[in-house]
# Entry
Amino acid sequence: MTLNVSTIIEILGTVAFTISGVFSAMQKRLDALGVVIIGFITAIGGGTIRDVLIGYTPVSWMRNIDTPLIILVTAFVTILFKKHIKSFKVTLFLCDALGLGLFTIIGIQRGLNVGLHPGICVALGTITGCFGGVIRDISLNAIPMIFRRQEIYATACIIGGSIYILMLHVIDPNIAKLIAVAIVCSIRILAVRYKIKLPVG
Amino acid sequence: MTLNVSTIIEILGTVAFTISGVFSAMQKRLDALGVVIIGFITAIGGGTIRDVLIGYTPVSWMRNIDTPLIILVTAFVTILFKKHIKSFKVTLFLCDALGLGLFTIIGIQRGLNVGLHPGICVALGTITGCFGGVIRDISLNAIPMIFRRQEIYATACIIGGSIYILMLHVIDPNIAKLIAVAIVCSIRILAVRYKIKLPVG
Amino acid sequence: MTLNVSTIIEILGTVAFTISGVFSAMQKRLDALGVVIIGFITAIGGGTIRDVLIGYTPVSWMRNIDTPLIILVTAFVTILFKKHIKSFKVTLFLCDALGLGLFTIIGIQRGLNVGLHPGICVALGTITGCFGGVIRDISLNAIPMIFRRQEIYATACIIGGSIYILMLHVIDPNIAKLIAVAIVCSIRILAVRYKIKLPVG
# Structure
């Protein structure tokens, strides 16, 4: 692992989604290993589906022990510090929003790297961002946020992802990445804060 | 995309399953993007699982923008015309039956193309036909039709698919395709119309 | 198929998980084909996910007709003999525990064969062992055992799998396989028998 912007984004996304998975599982009172497993699949779920769809196998997290170690350490630290965290619900929401933004951009970049159509790349980024949380929610027997009414979720990925691809023609890719991550997170957070909804289909 | 019988079947199957997904999602009162996403995953779900199982990656719908565009246009037209459609339930059922037949035969053909055993090809066709609907139903938190008691569903794929493989030894492949699609659809429709059931296992 | 220890373990695991799937489906009163399908996906689910993750495609069960035939014969025999089986619940539990042990070790061995890190191989073995049952339970709309509180499930795979990898440095691989399978099954059975639980996370 060399430390560039993409790698840092990937590590942060992994940490954010692990925390969100651990918090979801602790709310459901799972046992210690169950909590770690849900943290794990939340962190690697989106990227794994992305890798399988584009045929990048063995999938990313299996190629070395780095990602699993980051997830395990994050999960244990989260479990240890849970007493010091005031609001499970807010922490879960913010980590989920952050992971969503980070993984969406990573997913789009992977699609561009293998030469897919920009529109397909936005779909791939949305899948990468959303499906860790989808698998987490299905595993915990909850309706995935992405399918819940009155939540801007995939919308944030599609808007932020499309802007990212447009920005690539204009500014430095690393700066574009950071701005795009901020856009996805902001849309998600503002939509929930101000109860912005899409119309019923 | 060149227009031959297989391509036409694939496009019709994509349209039929998109409509069935959009109707299912509208019944559950999802927001506009949720409706489009459910239409999308219903249309590409079965083929994606098929491609992943046989190692055809990037999976079919990612290889160019045609399939996503067909799905998006179909979804928007369906949403626009929903007021003019009398019975959601009947439209959903007929589109689902049509998609089932079309995708089963496409799936079998893909299996034969890569040299799999005919029995495996029938399984692959059944997976291709059934799993768009399975993912649609799981996403909407309903029990998948394929697992519901007293529904002839996978049975239709297995019978129609087996007849297709037998017909290939006797008649023109394109005519065999059309007959086989008709058989799968007819079995499904007649089974529901006349309440034909399999015995309990 | 040549008959060596790995092949025998694979066949036994397939038979055990088919029976566990068939019993689960019969308890839910599915129709005959539904019962066979649930038996099928329980038997091939874990191995299929493993193959997809490491990029071994077409996945194992599609490469020849042997595995599907073993599953079909097992399913029919199980359905025929159901009257003679006293306790569905105990049979289901024991077959599930046996399949868990057998498939965990097969999964780890496949990972080692493609040169993955030992820690990743234990994860891959756990996935292979657990996900047939997970897909079975999700299909039947039940909470997967792996996520249920107060069940030692993945824990058994992780402990038995880690011991297997350590034993490989010391004793004959075939003997190590058999001992490791026995360890996974025993931990699972003893944990349920004596109600051993992990602490809440």
